[in-house]
Amino acid sequence: MTIRHPQIDQFNRRRFLGTMAAGAGTVAADMTVLNVLKNPAFAEELKRQQKSVILLWLAGGASQFETWDPKPGRPTGGPFGKIATNQSGVEISELLPKMAQQMETTALIRSLNTKIADHGGGFSLMGTGRRPEAGIEFPDLGAIIARELGRKESKVPDYVSIYSSTEGRRNGTSGFLGGRYAPMFLTQDVIPPNLSRLEQVSDLDHVQRAELRQLLTDRFQSKRQSLVVSSQTSAYERVRGLMSSERLFDVEEESSSMRAFYGPTQFQQQCLIARRLVEAGVPFVKVARAWWDSHGQNFETHRELCADLDQGMSALLTDLEQRGLLENTLVITLGEFGRTPGINPSLGRDHFASAWSCSLSGCGIKGGTVYGKTDPDGNTVADGEVGAGHLFATIFSALGIDWQKEYHQGSRPIPITDFGCEPIKDVLA
User: Fold this and answer.
1) Could you tell me which residues come within 8 angstroms of residue 414 by beta carbon, excluding any fewer than 6 positions away?
2) Which residues of the chain register pLDDT less than 70?
3) So what's the pLDDT on residue 151?
4) Would you state the pLDDT for residue 30?
5) 57 preceded by a cis bond (ω within 30 of 0)
């Protein structure tokens, strides 16, 4: 899209970003570009180029049969039917009627085989994209995205994890990347605690205390170079910046009509907060919805939870698209694993990691596509089997991150994508 302004009619976003990538010298040599940067409309366009991820975490493991890979009429299918979507040939569960009208921006992966079907192990695998390894703490997806897409000067957090629920709170980890990329983990309230300056501390005192701390820190660091010290100092500076972003978490800042558009439930309102955060430049937001662990009464559980997901996710995608943010925001649905094809005596489905599904929408994704398939009863992957590492490589590629990049822990190189894994090219735009 070209912004209609006299100075930039011939200078679209792709050309500008290409120029920026060529280096500061190139930009400085082009005075037209420098003049363009002063234009408010173009400044807003630069803001929109900030890529972000919103992960809708279906905690406990949602059933692929009742969401993205229905099998009506089969012994494993359960009582719900499937419905056509706005993309020819793509059908999903009847429990997601609003998402059925959003498939032009959404790709489904129906062939995950991740093999680990316990909550702790599944959470770790789907969080980091690889199995644990002795002697190393891998960063999770949010920390990597924060590291790759975060901006050092930003006053907003790089990684926010919202899980205001009483069950299954498992926090993410920044692993060997350090505290700078650890999540802001909100469990009791979506508004972060302790961000407001105490009333008894004046503005002057607040500034002077910060100056004193910086002086002492500089003296300490001049004699003791340490990654831990640097990480803690960086985290402190981030907190000071965060104090100015408290209102981003307040859904009451939105109009009543916008709040109603998203819906009244906690999860739906948190989806609205996620939009507010990515609009302000937060690279990674995780919104977790419990509790999909439906060992009993699976169908009644999914009737309720899918309605919540359907409304919140469809509103989020619509809102992002209308604001011009969806092309740079990747929205993911994911959990620890799926649910068993077999239905147990309690009318529930148990843990199942051998053939399950997830969705990707927005940034870098070829909407309306379905990758992989399961057999008629959903017992095994029939075509296109992929693991957690392949999914991570796909996510990185969609965001323009080099999926073959390596970090280093000491002298040891550690690729950000697990060994032997590549992006799923069929779902990438």
Assistant:
1) 136, 138, 176, 406, 407, 408
2) 1-48, 164-169, 194-199, 201, 203, 206-207, 225-245
3) 85
4) 38
5) no
- Which DSSP string do the residues of 288-355 spell out, in sequence order? EE-----SSSHHHHHHHHHHHHHHHHHHHHHHHHHTT-GGGEEEEEE-S-EE-SS--TTS---EE-SS
Is the CATH code 3.40.605.10 the one for domain 50-191+250-427?
A: no
Query: 263: closest CA among 309, 321, 304?
Result: 309
Task: With residue 143 as reference, give the H or E element that holds it.
Answer: helix 141-149
Instruction: Report whether 105 contacts 317 (CB < 8 A).
Output: yes
* Beta strand pairing call for 338-339 and 351-352: antiparallel
Question: For 268-279, what is each residue's pLDDT tens digit?
Answer: 999 999 999 999
Q: Please write the tens of the pLDDT for every residue from 22-47.
A: 443 333 333 343 344 455 665 555 55
Smallest Cα–Cα separation from 63: which of 297, 361, 411?
297
d(CA 251, CA 247): 8
Write phi, then psi, for 107 (nearest 5 degrees).
Answer: -115, 140
**Burial class of 85 by CB neighbour count within 10 A (0 to 12, 13 to 18, 19+):** buried
Torsional sign, CA 230, 232, 235, 237: negative
> CA 342, CA 349: separation in Å to the nearest integer?
7
* 235-257 confidence digits (pLDDT tens): 666 666 666 667 888 999 999 99
On whether the pTM is more than 0.70, the answer is yes
Task: Parse the chain into domains and list their residue ranges.
Answer: 1-49, 50-191+250-427
Extract the runs of DSSP E, i.e. beta strands, from 200-301: 284-289
What is the number of H-type helices and E-type strands within the chain?
Answer: 12, 16
Are 330 and 362 in contact by the 8 Å Cβ rule? The answer is yes
Helix (H) or strand (E) holding 238: helix 227-242
